[in-house]
Amino acid sequence: MLNFNIPLTKTSLSEPQWKVLVYDHWGQDIISPLLSVRELRELGVTLHLLLDSDREPIQDVPAVYFVRPTDDNVKRICKDFHSQLYESYYMNFISAISRQKLEDLALAAIQTNSVTQVTKIFDQYLNFISLEDDMFCLRHHSDVADSSKESISYYSINRGDVKDTEIERMMDNIVESLFCVFVTLGQVPIIRCPRNNAAEMVAEKLDKKLRDNIRDTRNSLFAGENVQSGQFSFQRPLLVILDRNIDLATPFHHTWTYQALSHDVLQLKLNRVEIEEKVQVNAPGRAPVEKKKVRSYDLNPTDGFWEEHKGSPFPTVAEAVQEKLDAYKAQEDEVKRLKTAMGLEGEDDETISMVSDNTARLTSAVSSLPELLEMKRLIDMHTNVATALLEQIKARMLDLYFETEERLMSRTTLDKSILDIIRDPEAGTVEDKVRLFIINLICGPPVSDAEIDQYCSVLQDAGCNLSAIQYIRRWKTYSKLPMSSAYSGGGTKTVGMFSKLVSTASQFAMEGVKNLVVKKHNLPVTKVLDSLMDMKSSSETDDFRYFDPKLLRATDSNSIPRNRSPFQEAMVFVVGGGNYIEYQNLVEYCKGKAGGANAKRVIYGCTELLNASQFLKQLEKLGLES
Protein backbone atom coordinates (compact mmCIF):
# COMPACT_ATOMS: atom_id res chain seq x y z
CA MET A 1 0.00 0.00 0.00
CA LEU A 2 2.80 2.42 0.91
CA ASN A 3 4.47 1.63 -2.40
CA PHE A 4 1.34 2.74 -4.31
CA ASN A 5 -0.03 -0.84 -4.38
CA ILE A 6 2.93 -2.16 -6.39
CA PRO A 7 4.93 -5.09 -4.88
CA LEU A 8 8.09 -3.88 -3.14
CA THR A 9 11.43 -4.51 -4.86
CA LYS A 10 15.01 -3.82 -3.80
CA THR A 11 15.00 -0.69 -5.98
CA SER A 12 11.83 0.71 -4.44
CA LEU A 13 13.24 0.04 -0.95
CA SER A 14 16.56 1.76 -1.70
CA GLU A 15 14.96 4.74 -3.48
CA PRO A 16 11.50 5.29 -2.00
CA GLN A 17 9.21 7.89 -3.57
CA TRP A 18 8.23 10.55 -1.04
CA LYS A 19 4.57 10.66 -0.08
CA VAL A 20 2.06 11.81 2.53
CA LEU A 21 0.10 9.19 4.52
CA VAL A 22 -3.42 10.24 5.54
CA TYR A 23 -5.35 7.97 7.93
CA ASP A 24 -8.35 8.10 10.25
CA HIS A 25 -8.22 6.91 13.89
CA TRP A 26 -8.98 3.32 12.82
CA GLY A 27 -6.17 3.34 10.26
CA GLN A 28 -3.83 4.79 12.89
CA ASP A 29 -4.66 1.94 15.32
CA ILE A 30 -4.04 -0.67 12.58
CA ILE A 31 -0.67 0.79 11.49
CA SER A 32 0.63 1.67 14.97
CA PRO A 33 1.63 -1.87 16.14
CA LEU A 34 3.06 -2.75 12.70
CA LEU A 35 5.31 0.16 11.67
CA SER A 36 7.36 2.63 13.68
CA VAL A 37 7.84 6.25 12.55
CA ARG A 38 11.38 5.33 11.45
CA GLU A 39 10.09 2.45 9.31
CA LEU A 40 7.46 4.71 7.74
CA ARG A 41 10.20 7.18 6.86
CA GLU A 42 12.28 4.41 5.27
CA LEU A 43 9.23 3.63 3.10
CA GLY A 44 9.13 7.25 1.94
CA VAL A 45 6.41 8.63 4.26
CA THR A 46 7.50 12.21 5.03
CA LEU A 47 4.29 13.18 6.81
CA HIS A 48 1.52 11.14 8.42
CA LEU A 49 -1.63 13.06 9.22
CA LEU A 50 -5.12 12.38 10.55
CA LEU A 51 -7.87 12.80 7.97
CA ASP A 52 -9.97 15.07 10.21
CA SER A 53 -7.06 17.38 11.14
CA ASP A 54 -6.51 20.76 9.47
CA ARG A 55 -4.09 20.01 6.63
CA GLU A 56 -2.26 22.46 4.40
CA PRO A 57 -1.97 21.91 0.62
CA ILE A 58 1.31 20.17 -0.35
CA GLN A 59 2.05 20.57 -4.04
CA ASP A 60 3.80 17.93 -6.18
CA VAL A 61 3.40 15.20 -3.55
CA PRO A 62 1.21 12.07 -3.83
CA ALA A 63 -1.02 11.13 -0.90
CA VAL A 64 -1.83 7.59 0.25
CA TYR A 65 -5.16 7.43 2.14
CA PHE A 66 -5.93 4.60 4.59
CA VAL A 67 -9.42 5.12 5.99
CA ARG A 68 -12.76 3.45 6.66
CA PRO A 69 -15.41 4.07 3.99
CA THR A 70 -17.76 6.03 6.28
CA ASP A 71 -20.00 8.92 5.17
CA ASP A 72 -17.91 11.44 7.15
CA ASN A 73 -14.62 10.16 5.68
CA VAL A 74 -15.94 10.21 2.10
CA LYS A 75 -17.16 13.81 2.60
CA ARG A 76 -13.75 14.79 3.97
CA ILE A 77 -11.94 13.23 0.97
CA CYS A 78 -14.29 15.12 -1.39
CA LYS A 79 -13.34 18.30 0.48
CA ASP A 80 -9.64 17.46 -0.09
CA PHE A 81 -10.35 17.18 -3.86
CA HIS A 82 -11.98 20.60 -3.73
CA SER A 83 -9.01 22.14 -1.88
CA GLN A 84 -6.53 20.54 -4.34
CA LEU A 85 -4.39 19.37 -1.40
CA TYR A 86 -2.13 16.88 -3.18
CA GLU A 87 -0.71 16.06 -6.59
CA SER A 88 -2.36 12.59 -6.74
CA TYR A 89 -4.61 10.44 -4.56
CA TYR A 90 -4.18 6.72 -3.79
CA MET A 91 -7.33 5.58 -1.95
CA ASN A 92 -7.09 2.53 0.33
CA PHE A 93 -10.25 1.63 2.19
CA ILE A 94 -9.93 -0.47 5.34
CA SER A 95 -13.03 -2.47 4.38
CA ALA A 96 -15.04 -2.64 1.15
CA ILE A 97 -16.54 0.65 -0.04
CA SER A 98 -20.15 0.58 -1.27
CA ARG A 99 -21.10 1.45 -4.85
CA GLN A 100 -23.08 4.50 -3.66
CA LYS A 101 -20.05 5.98 -1.86
CA LEU A 102 -17.83 5.26 -4.88
CA GLU A 103 -20.28 7.22 -7.00
CA ASP A 104 -20.16 10.10 -4.48
CA LEU A 105 -16.35 10.14 -4.80
CA ALA A 106 -16.54 10.01 -8.60
CA LEU A 107 -19.03 12.91 -8.70
CA ALA A 108 -16.81 15.03 -6.42
CA ALA A 109 -13.75 14.25 -8.60
CA ILE A 110 -15.64 15.36 -11.76
CA GLN A 111 -16.97 18.54 -10.10
CA THR A 112 -13.51 19.56 -8.83
CA ASN A 113 -11.73 18.53 -12.03
CA SER A 114 -9.62 15.98 -10.07
CA VAL A 115 -10.42 12.85 -12.08
CA THR A 116 -6.85 12.42 -13.40
CA GLN A 117 -5.42 12.91 -9.90
CA VAL A 118 -7.39 10.01 -8.37
CA THR A 119 -4.86 7.37 -9.38
CA LYS A 120 -5.97 4.16 -7.60
CA ILE A 121 -8.79 2.94 -5.38
CA PHE A 122 -8.36 -0.28 -3.40
CA ASP A 123 -10.44 -2.26 -0.89
CA GLN A 124 -7.76 -3.52 1.48
CA TYR A 125 -9.85 -5.80 3.75
CA LEU A 126 -7.74 -4.87 6.77
CA ASN A 127 -10.42 -4.09 9.35
CA PHE A 128 -8.56 -5.68 12.28
CA ILE A 129 -5.51 -4.90 14.41
CA SER A 130 -2.56 -7.35 14.29
CA LEU A 131 -0.73 -7.27 17.62
CA GLU A 132 1.39 -10.40 17.08
CA ASP A 133 2.00 -12.90 14.28
CA ASP A 134 -0.63 -15.07 15.96
CA MET A 135 -2.91 -12.55 17.68
CA PHE A 136 -5.37 -9.86 16.59
CA CYS A 137 -8.27 -7.83 17.92
CA LEU A 138 -11.04 -6.00 16.05
CA ARG A 139 -11.05 -2.80 18.06
CA HIS A 140 -8.56 -0.96 20.22
CA HIS A 141 -10.20 -0.62 23.64
CA SER A 142 -10.77 3.03 24.40
CA ASP A 143 -11.93 4.48 27.73
CA VAL A 144 -13.56 7.29 25.77
CA ALA A 145 -17.31 6.76 25.52
CA ASP A 146 -17.19 6.77 21.74
CA SER A 147 -20.18 4.83 20.41
CA SER A 148 -18.30 3.55 17.35
CA LYS A 149 -15.49 2.09 19.48
CA GLU A 150 -17.83 0.82 22.23
CA SER A 151 -20.09 -0.88 19.72
CA ILE A 152 -18.89 -4.46 20.24
CA SER A 153 -17.90 -4.57 23.92
CA TYR A 154 -19.07 -7.19 26.42
CA TYR A 155 -21.21 -4.48 28.03
CA SER A 156 -22.99 -3.46 24.83
CA ILE A 157 -23.76 -7.09 23.85
CA ASN A 158 -25.06 -8.08 27.32
CA ARG A 159 -26.80 -4.94 28.57
CA GLY A 160 -30.47 -5.37 29.46
CA ASP A 161 -31.94 -2.68 27.20
CA VAL A 162 -30.06 -3.69 24.03
CA LYS A 163 -32.34 -3.70 20.96
CA ASP A 164 -32.42 -6.49 18.36
CA THR A 165 -31.35 -4.00 15.67
CA GLU A 166 -28.30 -3.02 17.76
CA ILE A 167 -27.35 -6.68 18.26
CA GLU A 168 -27.67 -7.24 14.49
CA ARG A 169 -25.42 -4.26 13.76
CA MET A 170 -22.79 -5.41 16.28
CA MET A 171 -22.77 -8.94 14.87
CA ASP A 172 -22.47 -7.53 11.31
CA ASN A 173 -19.48 -5.42 12.42
CA ILE A 174 -17.77 -8.49 13.91
CA VAL A 175 -18.50 -10.61 10.80
CA GLU A 176 -17.17 -7.93 8.46
CA SER A 177 -13.88 -7.80 10.40
CA LEU A 178 -13.55 -11.60 10.60
CA PHE A 179 -14.22 -11.78 6.85
CA CYS A 180 -11.30 -9.33 6.37
CA VAL A 181 -9.06 -11.62 8.46
CA PHE A 182 -9.78 -14.65 6.25
CA VAL A 183 -9.44 -12.64 3.02
CA THR A 184 -5.99 -11.58 4.30
CA LEU A 185 -5.11 -15.21 5.14
CA GLY A 186 -6.57 -16.37 1.81
CA GLN A 187 -8.29 -19.34 3.46
CA VAL A 188 -11.88 -20.50 3.97
CA PRO A 189 -12.25 -22.03 7.45
CA ILE A 190 -14.50 -24.72 8.87
CA ILE A 191 -16.49 -23.04 11.64
CA ARG A 192 -17.51 -24.48 15.03
CA CYS A 193 -19.42 -22.65 17.76
CA PRO A 194 -21.64 -23.28 20.81
CA ARG A 195 -25.41 -22.77 20.57
CA ASN A 196 -27.76 -20.01 21.72
CA ASN A 197 -25.38 -17.10 22.20
CA ALA A 198 -23.62 -14.27 20.34
CA ALA A 199 -20.96 -16.70 19.00
CA GLU A 200 -23.67 -18.65 17.15
CA MET A 201 -25.03 -15.47 15.53
CA VAL A 202 -21.53 -14.54 14.33
CA ALA A 203 -20.92 -18.07 12.97
CA GLU A 204 -24.21 -18.11 11.00
CA LYS A 205 -23.59 -14.69 9.47
CA LEU A 206 -19.92 -15.41 8.66
CA ASP A 207 -20.84 -18.74 7.02
CA LYS A 208 -23.36 -16.91 4.79
CA LYS A 209 -20.91 -14.12 3.91
CA LEU A 210 -18.12 -16.57 2.98
CA ARG A 211 -20.55 -18.79 1.05
CA ASP A 212 -21.92 -15.82 -0.96
CA ASN A 213 -18.42 -14.67 -1.83
CA ILE A 214 -17.22 -18.12 -2.95
CA ARG A 215 -20.36 -18.60 -5.08
CA ASP A 216 -19.69 -15.34 -6.98
CA THR A 217 -16.83 -16.88 -9.01
CA ARG A 218 -16.08 -13.69 -10.97
CA ASN A 219 -15.55 -11.54 -7.89
CA SER A 220 -14.58 -14.15 -5.29
CA LEU A 221 -11.81 -13.02 -2.96
CA PHE A 222 -10.84 -16.68 -2.52
CA ALA A 223 -10.38 -17.31 -6.26
CA GLY A 224 -6.98 -18.92 -5.59
CA GLU A 225 -8.85 -21.69 -3.81
CA ASN A 226 -10.68 -23.96 -6.21
CA VAL A 227 -14.02 -24.60 -4.54
CA GLN A 228 -14.58 -27.98 -6.19
CA SER A 229 -11.15 -29.42 -5.45
CA GLY A 230 -10.84 -27.71 -2.09
CA GLN A 231 -14.08 -29.12 -0.75
CA PHE A 232 -12.53 -32.10 0.94
CA SER A 233 -9.09 -30.62 1.63
CA PHE A 234 -7.95 -31.63 5.12
CA GLN A 235 -5.52 -28.73 5.49
CA ARG A 236 -8.13 -26.02 5.92
CA PRO A 237 -8.07 -24.09 9.18
CA LEU A 238 -10.62 -24.52 11.96
CA LEU A 239 -12.32 -21.38 13.30
CA VAL A 240 -13.71 -21.76 16.82
CA ILE A 241 -15.99 -18.86 17.77
CA LEU A 242 -16.65 -18.61 21.52
CA ASP A 243 -18.62 -16.29 23.76
CA ARG A 244 -16.85 -14.49 26.62
CA ASN A 245 -19.36 -16.08 29.02
CA ILE A 246 -17.58 -19.44 28.57
CA ASP A 247 -15.01 -18.19 31.10
CA LEU A 248 -15.49 -15.05 33.19
CA ALA A 249 -12.81 -15.98 35.74
CA THR A 250 -9.67 -15.76 33.57
CA PRO A 251 -10.14 -12.05 32.63
CA PHE A 252 -9.92 -11.20 36.36
CA HIS A 253 -6.96 -13.47 37.12
CA HIS A 254 -3.84 -11.80 38.50
CA THR A 255 -1.09 -12.98 36.21
CA TRP A 256 2.61 -13.75 36.51
CA THR A 257 4.01 -13.52 32.96
CA TYR A 258 5.81 -10.48 31.51
CA GLN A 259 3.41 -9.51 28.70
CA ALA A 260 0.19 -10.17 30.63
CA LEU A 261 1.56 -8.34 33.72
CA SER A 262 2.50 -5.33 31.56
CA HIS A 263 -1.06 -5.26 30.18
CA ASP A 264 -2.67 -5.69 33.60
CA VAL A 265 -0.47 -3.37 35.65
CA LEU A 266 1.03 -0.88 33.16
CA GLN A 267 -1.89 -0.61 30.69
CA LEU A 268 -0.02 -1.99 27.64
CA LYS A 269 -1.85 -0.56 24.58
CA LEU A 270 -1.19 -1.46 20.94
CA ASN A 271 2.24 -2.88 21.96
CA ARG A 272 3.23 0.36 23.69
CA VAL A 273 3.58 0.93 27.41
CA GLU A 274 3.83 4.27 29.24
CA ILE A 275 5.68 4.53 32.54
CA GLU A 276 5.81 7.47 34.93
CA GLU A 277 9.44 7.99 35.97
CA LYS A 278 11.01 10.39 38.44
CA VAL A 279 13.72 12.64 36.96
CA GLN A 280 15.89 15.25 38.65
CA VAL A 281 15.76 18.70 37.07
CA ASN A 282 18.76 20.93 37.84
CA ALA A 283 17.96 24.64 37.94
CA PRO A 284 20.88 27.15 38.15
CA GLY A 285 21.39 28.41 41.69
CA ARG A 286 18.73 26.07 43.12
CA ALA A 287 18.62 22.61 44.62
CA PRO A 288 17.69 19.83 42.12
CA VAL A 289 13.94 19.32 41.86
CA GLU A 290 12.37 15.89 41.37
CA LYS A 291 9.70 15.83 38.65
CA LYS A 292 7.57 13.08 37.14
CA LYS A 293 7.99 12.37 33.44
CA VAL A 294 6.00 9.88 31.33
CA ARG A 295 8.14 7.74 29.04
CA SER A 296 6.71 5.63 26.24
CA TYR A 297 8.27 2.28 25.23
CA ASP A 298 7.48 0.10 22.21
CA LEU A 299 7.38 -3.61 23.03
CA ASN A 300 7.33 -5.18 19.59
CA PRO A 301 8.37 -8.42 17.85
CA THR A 302 11.65 -6.91 16.51
CA ASP A 303 12.92 -6.85 20.11
CA GLY A 304 14.59 -10.26 20.62
CA PHE A 305 14.46 -10.07 24.43
CA TRP A 306 10.71 -9.33 24.41
CA GLU A 307 10.03 -12.14 21.93
CA GLU A 308 11.95 -14.61 24.08
CA HIS A 309 10.59 -13.58 27.47
CA LYS A 310 7.10 -12.07 27.00
CA GLY A 311 5.57 -15.39 28.12
CA SER A 312 8.06 -16.01 30.94
CA PRO A 313 7.20 -15.71 34.64
CA PHE A 314 8.29 -12.36 36.07
CA PRO A 315 11.18 -13.69 38.25
CA THR A 316 12.74 -15.32 35.15
CA VAL A 317 12.46 -11.99 33.29
CA ALA A 318 14.11 -10.09 36.14
CA GLU A 319 17.01 -12.59 36.15
CA ALA A 320 17.37 -12.37 32.36
CA VAL A 321 17.44 -8.54 32.44
CA GLN A 322 20.11 -8.66 35.16
CA GLU A 323 22.20 -11.11 33.11
CA LYS A 324 21.92 -8.88 30.01
CA LEU A 325 22.95 -5.89 32.11
CA ASP A 326 26.00 -7.73 33.46
CA ALA A 327 26.99 -8.87 29.94
CA TYR A 328 26.66 -5.31 28.63
CA LYS A 329 28.78 -3.90 31.47
CA ALA A 330 31.49 -6.49 30.75
CA GLN A 331 31.60 -5.40 27.08
CA GLU A 332 31.60 -1.73 28.03
CA ASP A 333 34.44 -2.26 30.52
CA GLU A 334 36.44 -4.06 27.80
CA VAL A 335 36.07 -1.04 25.45
CA LYS A 336 37.12 1.35 28.25
CA ARG A 337 40.15 -0.81 29.10
CA LEU A 338 41.22 -0.91 25.44
CA LYS A 339 40.91 2.88 25.16
CA THR A 340 43.07 3.32 28.25
CA ALA A 341 45.65 0.96 26.79
CA MET A 342 45.64 2.87 23.51
CA GLY A 343 46.32 6.11 25.38
CA LEU A 344 49.64 4.80 26.69
CA GLU A 345 52.56 5.74 24.44
CA GLY A 346 56.33 6.14 24.63
CA GLU A 347 56.54 3.47 27.27
CA ASP A 348 58.63 0.29 27.22
CA ASP A 349 58.52 -2.37 24.48
CA GLU A 350 56.01 -4.47 26.39
CA THR A 351 53.48 -1.61 26.40
CA ILE A 352 53.97 -1.00 22.63
CA SER A 353 53.33 -4.65 21.80
CA MET A 354 50.23 -4.55 24.03
CA VAL A 355 48.97 -1.45 22.17
CA SER A 356 49.44 -3.12 18.76
CA ASP A 357 47.50 -6.19 19.99
CA ASN A 358 44.74 -3.97 21.31
CA THR A 359 44.43 -1.95 18.07
CA ALA A 360 42.74 -4.84 16.28
CA ARG A 361 40.53 -5.52 19.26
CA LEU A 362 39.54 -1.86 19.61
CA THR A 363 38.72 -1.70 15.88
CA SER A 364 36.45 -4.69 16.41
CA ALA A 365 34.90 -3.07 19.49
CA VAL A 366 34.25 0.22 17.63
CA SER A 367 32.61 -1.61 14.71
CA SER A 368 30.23 -3.30 17.17
CA LEU A 369 29.40 0.05 18.83
CA PRO A 370 25.99 0.56 17.12
CA GLU A 371 25.00 -2.94 18.22
CA LEU A 372 26.22 -2.13 21.73
CA LEU A 373 24.19 1.12 21.84
CA GLU A 374 21.01 -0.69 20.67
CA MET A 375 21.67 -3.36 23.31
CA LYS A 376 21.99 -0.60 25.93
CA ARG A 377 18.70 1.00 24.80
CA LEU A 378 16.82 -2.31 25.07
CA ILE A 379 18.39 -3.15 28.45
CA ASP A 380 17.44 0.29 29.80
CA MET A 381 13.90 -0.13 28.49
CA HIS A 382 13.37 -3.60 30.00
CA THR A 383 15.05 -2.53 33.25
CA ASN A 384 12.59 0.37 33.55
CA VAL A 385 9.56 -1.78 32.64
CA ALA A 386 10.60 -4.60 35.01
CA THR A 387 11.32 -2.11 37.82
CA ALA A 388 7.87 -0.53 37.39
CA LEU A 389 6.29 -4.01 37.50
CA LEU A 390 8.29 -5.00 40.58
CA GLU A 391 7.15 -1.85 42.42
CA GLN A 392 3.52 -2.78 41.71
CA ILE A 393 4.05 -6.45 42.68
CA LYS A 394 5.46 -5.36 46.06
CA ALA A 395 2.98 -2.54 46.70
CA ARG A 396 -0.07 -4.68 45.86
CA MET A 397 1.27 -8.12 46.94
CA LEU A 398 0.42 -9.46 43.49
CA ASP A 399 2.35 -12.70 44.09
CA LEU A 400 -0.05 -13.50 46.96
CA TYR A 401 -3.08 -12.85 44.74
CA PHE A 402 -1.68 -14.89 41.87
CA GLU A 403 -0.86 -17.86 44.11
CA THR A 404 -4.26 -17.76 45.87
CA GLU A 405 -6.18 -17.60 42.57
CA GLU A 406 -4.15 -20.44 41.05
CA ARG A 407 -5.00 -22.55 44.12
CA LEU A 408 -8.70 -21.65 43.80
CA MET A 409 -8.73 -22.58 40.11
CA SER A 410 -6.98 -25.90 40.78
CA ARG A 411 -9.04 -26.50 43.96
CA THR A 412 -6.12 -26.95 46.35
CA THR A 413 -5.98 -25.69 49.94
CA LEU A 414 -5.24 -22.01 50.53
CA ASP A 415 -2.37 -20.72 52.68
CA LYS A 416 -4.34 -17.62 53.62
CA SER A 417 -8.14 -17.41 53.64
CA ILE A 418 -10.02 -15.11 51.21
CA LEU A 419 -11.49 -13.16 54.17
CA ASP A 420 -8.02 -12.55 55.65
CA ILE A 421 -6.75 -11.17 52.33
CA ILE A 422 -9.80 -8.91 51.92
CA ARG A 423 -9.43 -7.61 55.48
CA ASP A 424 -5.66 -6.99 55.14
CA PRO A 425 -5.31 -3.26 54.34
CA GLU A 426 -1.78 -3.89 52.98
CA ALA A 427 -2.91 -6.54 50.48
CA GLY A 428 -3.66 -4.89 47.16
CA THR A 429 -6.14 -2.31 45.97
CA VAL A 430 -9.94 -2.47 46.35
CA GLU A 431 -10.04 -3.64 42.72
CA ASP A 432 -7.62 -6.52 43.49
CA LYS A 433 -9.91 -7.68 46.33
CA VAL A 434 -13.02 -7.63 44.10
CA ARG A 435 -11.17 -9.59 41.40
CA LEU A 436 -10.11 -12.25 43.92
CA PHE A 437 -13.64 -12.59 45.28
CA ILE A 438 -15.15 -12.92 41.77
CA ILE A 439 -12.72 -15.77 41.00
CA ASN A 440 -13.64 -17.37 44.34
CA LEU A 441 -17.35 -17.10 43.40
CA ILE A 442 -16.83 -18.73 40.01
CA CYS A 443 -14.09 -21.31 40.70
CA GLY A 444 -14.08 -21.86 44.46
CA PRO A 445 -16.23 -24.23 46.53
CA PRO A 446 -20.01 -23.49 46.52
CA VAL A 447 -20.93 -20.52 48.71
CA SER A 448 -24.41 -19.86 50.18
CA ASP A 449 -26.18 -16.52 49.67
CA ALA A 450 -25.72 -15.74 53.38
CA GLU A 451 -21.94 -16.30 53.09
CA ILE A 452 -21.76 -14.16 49.95
CA ASP A 453 -23.59 -11.36 51.83
CA GLN A 454 -21.05 -11.67 54.65
CA TYR A 455 -18.15 -11.37 52.16
CA CYS A 456 -19.87 -8.39 50.48
CA SER A 457 -20.21 -6.65 53.84
CA VAL A 458 -16.45 -7.06 54.49
CA LEU A 459 -15.67 -5.89 50.92
CA GLN A 460 -17.88 -2.84 51.41
CA ASP A 461 -16.06 -2.01 54.66
CA ALA A 462 -12.80 -2.20 52.66
CA GLY A 463 -14.21 0.42 50.25
CA CYS A 464 -14.97 -1.89 47.32
CA ASN A 465 -17.54 -1.31 44.60
CA LEU A 466 -19.90 -4.32 44.65
CA SER A 467 -21.70 -3.70 41.30
CA ALA A 468 -19.62 -6.25 39.37
CA ILE A 469 -20.25 -8.88 42.08
CA GLN A 470 -24.02 -8.27 41.77
CA TYR A 471 -23.75 -8.97 38.04
CA ILE A 472 -21.72 -12.18 38.58
CA ARG A 473 -24.35 -13.41 41.10
CA ARG A 474 -27.10 -12.84 38.53
CA TRP A 475 -24.97 -14.39 35.76
CA LYS A 476 -24.33 -17.53 37.85
CA THR A 477 -28.05 -18.10 38.35
CA TYR A 478 -28.88 -18.08 34.63
CA SER A 479 -25.59 -19.52 33.34
CA LYS A 480 -25.89 -23.20 32.46
CA LEU A 481 -22.12 -23.72 32.33
CA PRO A 482 -20.73 -26.30 34.76
CA MET A 483 -18.30 -23.82 36.31
CA SER A 484 -16.29 -25.99 38.64
CA SER A 485 -15.38 -28.57 35.98
CA ALA A 486 -14.02 -25.94 33.57
CA TYR A 487 -10.98 -25.24 35.74
CA SER A 488 -8.62 -28.02 36.73
CA GLY A 489 -4.92 -28.73 37.00
CA GLY A 490 -2.58 -25.81 37.45
CA GLY A 491 -1.53 -24.56 40.84
CA THR A 492 1.86 -23.24 41.92
CA LYS A 493 4.85 -24.19 43.96
CA THR A 494 7.28 -21.82 45.64
CA VAL A 495 10.99 -22.20 44.85
CA GLY A 496 13.13 -20.81 47.65
CA MET A 497 14.65 -17.40 46.97
CA PHE A 498 15.48 -16.14 43.50
CA SER A 499 18.56 -18.06 42.45
CA LYS A 500 20.74 -15.24 41.13
CA LEU A 501 18.97 -12.13 42.38
CA VAL A 502 20.02 -12.20 46.01
CA SER A 503 23.28 -10.32 45.43
CA THR A 504 23.25 -6.75 46.72
CA ALA A 505 24.52 -5.52 43.33
CA SER A 506 21.33 -6.69 41.63
CA GLN A 507 19.05 -4.07 40.11
CA PHE A 508 16.01 -5.99 41.39
CA ALA A 509 15.77 -6.38 45.16
CA MET A 510 13.27 -9.22 45.36
CA GLU A 511 12.91 -9.59 49.14
CA GLY A 512 9.36 -10.37 50.16
CA VAL A 513 8.32 -11.53 46.69
CA LYS A 514 7.70 -15.24 46.20
CA ASN A 515 9.37 -17.06 43.32
CA LEU A 516 6.38 -19.00 42.04
CA VAL A 517 6.66 -21.73 39.44
CA VAL A 518 3.36 -22.27 37.64
CA LYS A 519 2.29 -25.78 36.76
CA LYS A 520 1.12 -26.00 33.14
CA HIS A 521 -2.63 -26.34 32.68
CA ASN A 522 -5.18 -25.61 29.98
CA LEU A 523 -7.75 -22.85 30.48
CA PRO A 524 -11.39 -23.47 29.38
CA VAL A 525 -10.83 -21.84 25.96
CA THR A 526 -7.76 -24.03 25.30
CA LYS A 527 -9.61 -27.19 26.43
CA VAL A 528 -12.45 -26.50 23.97
CA LEU A 529 -9.95 -25.89 21.16
CA ASP A 530 -8.02 -29.08 21.97
CA SER A 531 -11.21 -31.19 21.76
CA LEU A 532 -12.25 -29.62 18.44
CA MET A 533 -8.78 -29.70 16.80
CA ASP A 534 -8.26 -33.37 17.62
CA MET A 535 -11.94 -34.25 16.94
CA LYS A 536 -12.23 -35.71 20.45
CA SER A 537 -15.62 -36.31 22.02
CA SER A 538 -16.25 -34.11 25.06
CA SER A 539 -19.35 -32.98 26.96
CA GLU A 540 -18.35 -29.34 26.35
CA THR A 541 -18.07 -29.56 22.54
CA ASP A 542 -20.29 -32.43 21.36
CA ASP A 543 -23.22 -30.06 20.91
CA PHE A 544 -21.23 -27.43 18.96
CA ARG A 545 -22.63 -26.39 15.58
CA TYR A 546 -20.68 -27.12 12.40
CA PHE A 547 -20.46 -24.89 9.29
CA ASP A 548 -18.52 -25.50 6.09
CA PRO A 549 -18.90 -22.49 3.74
CA LYS A 550 -17.33 -24.48 0.88
CA LEU A 551 -20.11 -27.05 0.71
CA LEU A 552 -22.21 -25.88 -2.23
CA ARG A 553 -25.49 -26.26 -0.34
CA ALA A 554 -25.83 -25.13 3.22
CA THR A 555 -26.76 -28.34 5.03
CA ASP A 556 -28.51 -28.59 8.34
CA SER A 557 -26.18 -27.46 11.13
CA ASN A 558 -26.77 -30.73 13.00
CA SER A 559 -25.06 -32.62 10.20
CA ILE A 560 -22.10 -34.73 11.19
CA PRO A 561 -18.77 -32.94 10.55
CA ARG A 562 -17.36 -34.08 7.19
CA ASN A 563 -13.80 -33.58 8.32
CA ARG A 564 -12.81 -36.36 10.73
CA SER A 565 -9.03 -35.87 10.67
CA PRO A 566 -7.28 -33.65 13.26
CA PHE A 567 -6.65 -30.00 12.35
CA GLN A 568 -3.14 -28.58 12.10
CA GLU A 569 -4.20 -24.92 12.05
CA ALA A 570 -6.89 -23.17 14.03
CA MET A 571 -8.15 -19.78 15.08
CA VAL A 572 -9.94 -19.11 18.37
CA PHE A 573 -12.10 -16.01 18.35
CA VAL A 574 -13.75 -14.68 21.53
CA VAL A 575 -16.82 -12.46 21.19
CA GLY A 576 -16.96 -9.99 24.10
CA GLY A 577 -13.27 -9.38 24.74
CA GLY A 578 -10.05 -11.36 25.19
CA ASN A 579 -6.85 -11.14 27.23
CA TYR A 580 -3.14 -11.99 27.13
CA ILE A 581 -3.58 -14.81 29.69
CA GLU A 582 -5.66 -16.88 27.24
CA TYR A 583 -3.34 -15.97 24.38
CA GLN A 584 -0.29 -17.15 26.35
CA ASN A 585 -2.07 -20.35 27.36
CA LEU A 586 -2.69 -21.14 23.66
CA VAL A 587 0.97 -20.39 22.83
CA GLU A 588 2.03 -22.86 25.57
CA TYR A 589 -0.46 -25.41 24.20
CA CYS A 590 1.14 -25.14 20.72
CA LYS A 591 4.64 -25.48 22.23
CA GLY A 592 3.51 -28.70 23.90
CA LYS A 593 2.44 -30.03 20.49
CA ALA A 594 5.54 -28.81 18.59
CA GLY A 595 7.25 -31.06 16.05
CA GLY A 596 6.00 -34.06 14.19
CA ALA A 597 2.58 -34.80 12.78
CA ASN A 598 0.79 -33.36 15.82
CA ALA A 599 2.28 -29.85 15.47
CA LYS A 600 -0.38 -27.16 15.87
CA ARG A 601 -0.56 -23.52 14.80
CA VAL A 602 -3.16 -21.39 16.57
CA ILE A 603 -4.18 -17.74 16.12
CA TYR A 604 -6.00 -15.96 18.95
CA GLY A 605 -8.49 -13.21 18.16
CA CYS A 606 -11.04 -11.18 20.12
CA THR A 607 -13.42 -8.27 19.68
CA GLU A 608 -11.28 -6.11 22.00
CA LEU A 609 -8.29 -6.78 24.22
CA LEU A 610 -9.14 -6.00 27.84
CA ASN A 611 -7.20 -6.02 31.07
CA ALA A 612 -8.97 -6.85 34.34
CA SER A 613 -9.60 -3.22 35.26
CA GLN A 614 -11.29 -2.42 31.92
CA PHE A 615 -13.41 -5.59 32.06
CA LEU A 616 -14.41 -4.87 35.68
CA LYS A 617 -15.73 -1.43 34.65
CA GLN A 618 -17.98 -3.07 32.04
CA LEU A 619 -19.35 -5.55 34.60
CA GLU A 620 -19.92 -2.73 37.10
CA LYS A 621 -22.12 -0.96 34.52
CA LEU A 622 -24.06 -4.21 33.98
CA GLY A 623 -24.38 -4.73 37.75
CA LEU A 624 -26.02 -1.33 38.18
CA GLU A 625 -28.91 -2.43 35.92
CA SER A 626 -31.93 -3.43 37.97
TrEMBL record:
Signal peptide residues on this chain, from the entry's feature table: none
Gene3D superfamilies: 1.25.40.60, 3.40.50.1910, 3.40.50.2060, Syntaxin Binding Protein 1, Chain A, domain 2
Superkingdom classification of source: Eukaryota
Alphabetical list of InterPro entries matching this protein: Sec-1-like_dom1, Sec-1-like_dom3a, Sec1-like, Sec1-like_dom2, Sec1-like_sf
GO biological process: vesicle-mediated transport
Family affiliation: Belongs to the STXBP/unc-18/SEC1 family.
Name of the featured protein: Sec1 family domain-containing protein 1
